[in-house]
Write a structure and sequence with these properties.
CATH superfamily of the largest domain: Glycosidases
Number of domains: 3
CATH class of the largest domain: Alpha Beta
CATH architecture of the largest domain: Alpha-Beta Barrel
Oligomer: single chain
Number of helices: 11
Structural class: alpha/beta
Largest sheet: 8 strands, parallel
Length: 592
């Protein structure tokens, strides 16, 4: 009866013959499990488009949870290693969130534009079960932490460990995937525009990071991939946990060197070998504990697919990204950098992604500094939006504003700093700015102390290793250290998921306070010196310790060690370098 109804709704739909599946991957909780089926022999350029006119869905259940996972055409099933664009393999990736028995039912259909139709639940051609055991991984591997989820709070949370997530990492190069060793990847026209895109023809090799590749790390087609894998190894070694990258920057985009399609002029057929190679890199990011910040378009091309609407091109683009990559445990979908789509379009995009993504990964939006009120206000309370991706010169105020307004509308946003607004400056190389005082004080700590969820660093186009041509993340080695010091303080000393901004509790206007009143207070002084702290609740003694955000390390003692009870108290001076930035930690403790 279900099949009959589907045939009535879609007269061109027919069932295609499929053979039984092969299950691969480790049958463990939070690990990628892959089902591969033998189906119609076809190719990327076939007249009957295998991406648009065929559809694979697999339903996974374990008694209480049910996931409908979209599948994809996988050429010969090993395209990343062979470079093939033809074959009879059809595939789905699944990540179980429970141990025990899982059942699955696979549905495959053929028909005009069937990939864009709503899920129909036709008669399955294959079904079965498998048993999942516990993971054997340890942190920072995401498989030890579980899926990173939106939990209606200011911070994302790992499902397994219940840790809240503060992101820190690279916003640049935004064309991270414009890598020489990926199939079909090259610079279309050089970087001949003004400003950020100015320069000669260029494609990434990440040669300085080949030395960071380690024995046992992945490669493809022999020794390809060592540069990009090594770059990720380096970034993870600095304690960073997120990378921002665009998946589509042609049609007027800055780099003109990243696309998922089989040809830069194609929009309905995908490059199976290139996307398999992306998957190799993304899987290594999971292992390293690095979140995928997937930026699906940029301002220069956000009106190109279907003239900016949710049509055939855009739906198929989103479906392919979700089918191939949504199983990654830490992933954010960003609707676009400096986005200019209308509110109705943005909501349509987000709703389509939310309905198709089986894991409900958080959805973010990035926009211009002067457009935030116009763009974000109509999205407040929208059920398919979880994060604000800020570009700003006023990080503390903007973070406070959007955390507050989103919470007041019943859906608290995760508010991250994803670009310093001066596009020509950004974070300079260490050789140009060894101390990074401005990004550290005015952006990193400003965001975190306002209840923000972290930062990714953008590299200005006027400096070496910029937003499009950066080859060596060591060019900002000191900035990674400074960022790690901030995250270490928050994770080690603060129950930050229970705290909020409380700047009104300090007497100094040039200070930030983050608190759980009566229990713990963190006071950041960008220019050092001292301030008074007003305690309206709490009795007994409080200790004062100091953290050096420039060097990290242990808590230190300043001029005031303790004070008692409610009221207004001087917190004293930091232990040394009184005119430089410091962080005071005030907690209940005994007087010495």
């Amino acid at each position: 009866m279900i099949l009959f109804i589907a045939l009535v709704l879609y007269p061109s739909l027919t069932l295609a013959k499929m053979a039984e599946e092969v299950i691969s991957g480790q049958l463990k909780k939070w690990h990628r499990i892959t089902l591969t089926f033998d189906g119609p022999i076809t190719n990327e350029g076939a007249e009957d488009n295998p991406f648009l006119n065929y559809r694979l869905d697999v339903i996974f259940t374990n008694g209480k949870n049910r996931y409908i996972v979209p599948g994809f055409y996988a050429a010969d099933g090993n395209a990343g290693q062979t470079g093939e664009n033809s074959g009879n393999k059809w595939r789905v990736h699944f990540v179980p969130d429970e141990i025990g028995q899982w059942n699955y039912s696979a549905i495959f259909a053929q028909g005009k534009n069937i990939a864009l139709k709503s899920f129909q639940g036709n008669k399955p051609f294959a079904s079965g079960q498998f048993t999942v055991g516990p993971t054997d991984k340890t942190s920072p591997d995401h498989r030890a932490r579980g899926m990173l989820r939106y939990v209606k709070k200011r911070y994302l949370q790992f499902a397994e460990t219940k840790e809240f997530f503060l992101k820190a990492g690279a916003d640049s190069p935004e064309n991270f995937l414009a890598f020489r060793d990926f199939d079909g990847t090259f610079d279309l026209a050089g970087l001949k525009d003004e400003g950020e895109a100015q320069g000669e023809q260029f494609i990434h090799t990440y040669q300085p990071h080949v030395k960071d590749w380690r024995k046992g790390d992945p490669t493809w087609r022999g020794d390809k991939g060592k540069g990009i894998i090594g770059a990720l190894n380096y970034l993870a070694s600095k304690g960073m946990n997120s990378v921002y990258f665009v998946t589509y920057n042609i049609d007027g985009g800055d780099g003109k060197d990243v696309w998922p399609w089989a040809d830069p002029d194609e929009r309905l057929r995908f490059d199976c070998s290139k996307l398999d190679e992306w998957e190799i890199v993304f899987s290594h990011m999971d292992k390293l504990g690095i979140m995928l910040h997937v930026v699906t378009q940029e301002e220069e091309n956000d009106q190109r697919l279907d003239d900016g609407n949710l049509g055939t091109q855009r739906k198929l683009y989103y479906r392919e990204l979700i089918a191939r990559f949504s199983h990654h445990l830490a992933l954010t979908w960003n609707l676009g950098e400096e986005n200019t789509n209308s509110t109705a379009q943005q909501k349509a995009f987000a709703k389509y992604i939310r309905d198709l993504d089986p894991y409900d990964h958080p959805i973010a939006l990035h926009t211009y500094p002067d457009a935030q009120d116009k763009i974000y206000t109509p999205l407040l309370g929208f059920e398919c939006m979880e994060a604000a991706s800020l570009q700003t010169l006023d990080a503390h105020r903007q973070t406070l504003l959007w955390t507050k307004r989103s919470a007041e509308n019943g859906r608290p946003w995760v508010v991250c700093l994803d670009e310093i607004a001066r596009a020509d400056v950004g974070v300079k190389p260490d050789s140009q700015d060894p101390t990074h005082d401005v990004p550290r004080k005015e952006f990193l700590w400003a965001n975190l102390m306002a209840g923000g969820a972290g930062a990714e660093w953008y590299f200005g186009y006027e400096y070496p290793h910029n937003d499009l041509n950066c080859e060596d993340w060591r060019s900002r080695d000191s900035m990674w250290n400074l960022t790690r010091f901030a995250l270490e303080f928050f994770h080690k000393y603060l129950p930050f998921g229970e705290m909020s901004s409380a700047d009104n509790l300090t007497s100094s206007k040039n200070s930030f306070c983050f608190a759980k009143p009566g229990l713990i207070y963190a006071v950041y002084l960008p220019e050092g010196q001292t301030t008074e702290l007003k305690l309206s609740v709490g009795t007994g003694d409080f200790t004062v310790k100091w953290y050096n955000p420039r060097q990290g390390g242990k808590l230190l003692t300043g001029s005031v060690k303790t004070f008692s009870g409610s009221g207004t108290h001087a917190i004293g001076l930091p232990p040394y370098d009184h005119h430089k930035d410091w962080l005071a930690l005030i907690r209940p403790g005994r007087r010495h």
